[in-house]
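Quick board copy: two proteins, each given as sequence then tokens.
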Amino acid sequence: MTQPSFVVSAHHVGDDADWWRRAVVYQIYPRSFQDTDGDGYGDIPGITARLDHLDALGVDVVWLSPVYRSPQDDNGYDISDYEDIDPMFGSLADLDALIAGLHARGMRLVMDLVVNHTSDEHPWFAASRSAKDSPKRDWYIWRPARVVPGRQPGEPGTEPTNWGSFFSGPAWQWDEDTQEFYLHLFSTKQPDLNWENPQVRRAVYDMMGRWLDRGVDGFRMDVINLISKTYPLADGPRPDGALYGDGAALVANGPRVHEFLHEMNQAVFAPRSRHIITVGETPGVTTAEASRFTDPASAEVDMVFQFEHVGLTDGPGGKFDPQPLDRVALKRNLAGWQAALAPDVDATGRITRERGWNSNYWDNHDQPRAVSRFGDDDPAWRETSAKTIASILHLHRGTPYVYQGEELGQTNTVFHGIDSYRDLESINYFHERTGVGDDPAALLAGLAVNSRDNARTPVQWDATANAGFTAATPWIDVAPNYTEINAAAQVGVPGSVFEHYRALIALRHHDDAVALGTFRLLDADAADSWTLLREYVGADGEREQILLIASCTRAGLETGPGSALRGRLAAEGLDLGEWEDAERVLMASLPADAALGVPDLDGWDSVILRRRI
């Protein structure tokens, strides 16, 4: 079929070879974006109807969470047909119209690629489980029961390994008909594909190629570093109090993962004339592994999602046992990733070679809302802190990701018991832990902070019923503060969260230091502030510097002569006095203006300064 033509727009990055390094990605969780057919679920026509919002924001790439045919056991991440659209979201014609609408505005589309596992209703798995001698039996990971005296095959304790599923319960499911277990690292309805089988890999690559031929511009690859397991499969360590063994080290970053991703790159991406943007979700990845995944010389993926910074609040009981955020640890963690994927530079500071690339995000469909987690969602501080944490993220080197509603400062929601939840992970965890005697009230308190449902409440478009998301009953409750926090109250309003995001995105498009420059964290041990220096040395030797100073508490931050901050920065070789004539590019508390110099900052305020030397 003829691909919809891509039209270069002044609002977005163009089509040069490195366009993706200047790009900003916007994630859409389709069921919560916009409903047009009155069933309470968002759909693809709803996305198309809101493209002017994305165009005005200036984002360059739209990442679409799964819209494929699915039983919706895990909200579409259990795919039963990779090559069709689930009727709840629309049709292939609707997707074609979305691609055309994006391309006409100078934006691109990234599809979610979920190929570590399929749905158990996928025809591949139906064939695989039909008989042990099925030609597709080896497309999935089957194993006989472990021999345990006194237990029959298939009974608890006879699983091939002791691994727990990421969604609670064992990672193995017994199939009565063929008398073997199949592996499912997530839901029982999400059996893992066997990537050791070259037929599986070829089928996946062919499917990806057909989407690209249709006009899709890239893929976000769900848990892609789990496709290579360590064989033979063996038990994992079982921490004290845990119900199951931890198999993460045996299923993540396996011995063939780089081989598989390079093979994918060469089979699917390299033959095409345009750049295909690729991001791998890689839980448990190390900086060394990430450097190898994203080094252009490796020809694997452009960037990876890592989870270290969002795991810093995990307590002994995991994500649902949240602990207070250590901001110093957060700053140092992100700076460590910046250093690990930093470019090579010459003696003048000019970049000579890229060695990797970061994905920068605060939240997504699997994480709670950014302002509630990393900022301050008290109504008195929400707007300013939402803008400040946005500035912090967008001033890191790498590709920024904006999750739907983040550009409005949407917050975590209010839950009224376990019946308010829709997320499979949260519901399974609650029932598993109450089943072994844990306190339900304590469990609900942990879920309220970190449940994925916080991010899945509908986008708040206006102050009308259901926030303008649907005329029906929404599939999940709208956050109750939608009458105060919504797009209609912010788009075009100077100083709003939306307009701050718009300014940050435009800055990345046009400023070399922000998009490509080197990165330095200053004053790393200060918990009440965040100071970043970006620098770009042009071919003519001109040096552009961008400085971000952010207050990260309600107390504010003094920056003038004699201030503690000025003294600490001077000890690291940065004299704030040299920035008195610098351009004030953007402040969280004010719309962009033409002021100069380094201001004192009120609580949660921040300033971006620019100078050339």
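And the next:
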Amino acid sequence: MPEYKAPLRDYKFVMQELLDCETHYTTLGYEDASLDMVDAILSEAGKFTEQVIAPLNQIGDQQGCTWTDGVVTTPDGFKQAYQQYVDGGWPTLSLPEEFGGQNLPHSINTVMGEMMSAANHSFAMYPGLSHGAIATLMAHGTDIQKQMFLPKLVEGSWTGTMCLTEAHCGTDLGMLRTKAELNDDGSYRLNGSKIFISAGEHDLSDNIVHIVIARIPGSPEGTRGISLFAVPKFNISDNGDIEDRNGVNCGSIEHKMGINANATCVINFDNAKGYLIGEINRGLNCMFTFMNAARLGVANEGVAASEASFQGALAYAKDRLQMRSMSGVKNPNGPADPIIVHPDVRRMLLTQKAFAEGGRALTSDLAQLVDITHASNDEEQKAQAEAKLAFLTPIAKAFLTETGLESTSHGIQVFGGHGFIKEWGMEQLLRDTKISCIYEGTTGIQALDLLGRKVLGSKGELLKGFASEVVSFCQTNATNPALTNYCQTLGGYLQEWQTTTMDIGQKAATNPDEVGAASVDYLMYSGYITLAYYWVKMVACAQQKLDEGTKEKDFYLAKIQTGQFYFDRILPRAKGHVACITAGADSMMAIDSEHFVF
């Protein structure tokens, strides 16, 4: 089983050296977030995830959750570990002091989230959705609702869920059937069933607050008639005490490919008491607060998967002896050389490393943008942060989970036949990671969001804004001999990106299917270019440290060499996606659906 170690040195590089979190936090008024404080928090978070959460990963996969007459029991050790998580104050890191939080930046909590997911994906999901529930209630809840729910959610003694999907409607939420009818006291009674509810029932917390979409009788059909509700597992008194059981029950839990230690539930609402969040028929708008928070969290899961698989594969590749190096014996005292000397093993390891570290730079930058939206008093700065977040969120969610899945596949391959065996733990990483490509909007849905809504829908303005940032960086560093080739290459891709976008828009004017046909290739293409930008920024930072005479030469040199590998061996994949986009929709849509037979 891979032994997870929190990559504290790389967190320090990204947060302090690449993104200058010290200035960032000071500017936003986060006075308690000094570098010493941040280092101490991340160090303790590393110990907690390594020593408490990671050891439960394999037993959680083996035991899974059990369901008996609506009661869900988590695997051995999970309840005790969750209590340690709450006692340590970890749920409260980035939440407001008025509800019991520590009021630290969101970006610090993002790092904690990556550690937890890399150490134990299933465990991390239990508190993971609580943050989305909290964000939704903070943004759209009434003062009474905030006082009713937030202190316990922030504390972690209660957890939250997102209840969207029904058996007959997945992405097409306008087809939902769950009904909400007004009670005499102003609350609502909900009836219906939701499926695929992560952490929908468990034995870790005292109460579970479900954030549920439903339709009020008389509301318009489709998405224009959706309202949003907070529905607790146990009813709550006016002073916040738990009362009797609400009409919320777990009908079953799913038997899944992965994340076996997280209960994925069917939740039945039978005259369940709920509270309207926001305005009637504006539920989906409110829900986007939750969904956007969740999508950034899932992007973080993709980075975590790449990191965890890389760590396991790297340790094995240094230890496993097989064959001799083609360039000469490297281990003369042994019967064979360690497999890390072989180019193909290096290819897989460097791909994992490039996706983990490049993805971490991207998600950390997005987390700092969230800090700005939360704490900045500069409206123009907030608007720019929100625009960049809108553009990069679908790229981060879909691209980083797809590359996370690829990384876990490489991890198995490095182990060879042993990678296919459960006791090594590498195949679990792949099984656990696949869901990240699906939930909170599949790769295809994120791709349509990026190309259809964010790029074409903004008439190219969101793409132009991000491209301007990249162009500015390249122009500033054009004469830097260490960066010239990187900037020239990236500049060429940027021009192609914008030209390709215009071509899709022109084709879509006469054939709307062109958008759907191009969308996933467009997203992956955008992802490779986006990560290239973060890699050249990391190369620039590392080169500066070397020029200053740092004593950590090996660390910074490895960063530069990984960046070179990304540009040489990974970025060229973008050209294949352009070729697919250029081919258009014709061959994809040519076969009549009735002739699609086997």
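Board note added afterward: The mean pLDDT is 96.
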